[in-house]
Amino acid sequence: MEHDFWHQRWQENRIGFHQEAINPWLQQYWSKLRFETGARVLVPLCGKSKDMLWLREQGHEVLGVELSDIACRDFFHEQGVDVAAVTVDTYHRRERDGIVLLTADLFELPWEAFRGVGAVYDRAALIALPPAMRRRYAERMAQRLAPGVEMLLVSLEFGGDAGPPFSVPENEVRELFEPAFTVIRLADAETTKSQSDVAVREVVYLLHRQ
Ligand SMILES: C[S@@+](CC[C@H](N)C(=O)[O-])C[C@H]1O[C@@H](n2cnc3c(N)ncnc32)[C@H](O)[C@@H]1O
């Protein structure tokens, strides 16, 4: 998607993807991942997800990367604090109590920004991207993550190519990430796509960087 698409969504507050509750898959399956105590968790395309608060409560440092400065600002504002942004190179950085949010294009971030990442949580990141960008995303993860780093990925499967959110079925997840990652399908459940009655399956994967 073009940057403008997302900036407009945030400006107009059309953020149906945002969840007020902590994601149940995250709570159920995060303990399946292997990481060091307190590992820094990368949350790509993080929006203002409250899941980052849950990860922080588990003792992690959190590194969220998000295109929209509105999202990064509002994440902290909704916790009752206004955190000033510091400009670093081409992006904005806000930090408070172990949560760092970078207002940046994930694909433009330099290597150093990924330093120390020990785990990844992807909810509505891969599925927010059109096909060619999904390939770039998987390549970027393979380039930037150290061997042994694991990712919890929540994907969606439904009929049709329209999006976002896009349907990314298991064969595509494997095609994108293997062999750089081993891919384990952990669980799935039927849900309903918002604003329509299309049957949608949410699928949770554990990815292990080889
Ligand atoms: C579907 S939303 C999901 C947000 C969050 N993961 C959640 O669960 O609420 C996708 C987010 O990715 C952001 N985004 C899109 N392209 C991006 C990029 N190239 N780099 C960083 N963020 C991006 C959008 O602004 C949007 O907030």
TrEMBL record:
Q: What is its main location?
A: cytoplasm
**Which reaction does this enzyme catalyse, per its entry?**
S-adenosyl-L-methionine + a thiopurine = S-adenosyl-L-homocysteine + a thiopurine S-methylether
Q: Domain of life, per the record?
A: Bacteria
What's one GO MF term for it? thiopurine S-methyltransferase activity
- Give a Gene Ontology cellular component term annotated to this protein: cytoplasm
Q: What class of enzyme is it?
A: transferase
Give yes or no: UniProt keyword Methyltransferase: yes
Cite the EC number: 2.1.1.67
Tell me which Gene Ontology terms the entry assigns under biological process. Answer: methylation; response to metal ion
Binding residues for S-adenosyl-L-methionine: W10, L45, E66, R123
**Which keywords does this Swiss-Prot/TrEMBL entry list?**
Cytoplasm, Methyltransferase, S-adenosyl-L-methionine, Transferase
Give its localization.
Answer: Cytoplasm
Xref: SUPFAM superfamilies: S-adenosyl-L-methionine-dependent methyltransferases (SSF53335)
Q: Which family does it belong to?
A: Belongs to the class I-like SAM-binding methyltransferase superfamily. TPMT family.
What protein is this chain from?
Answer: Thiopurine S-methyltransferase
Q: Which gene name belongs to this protein?
A: tpm
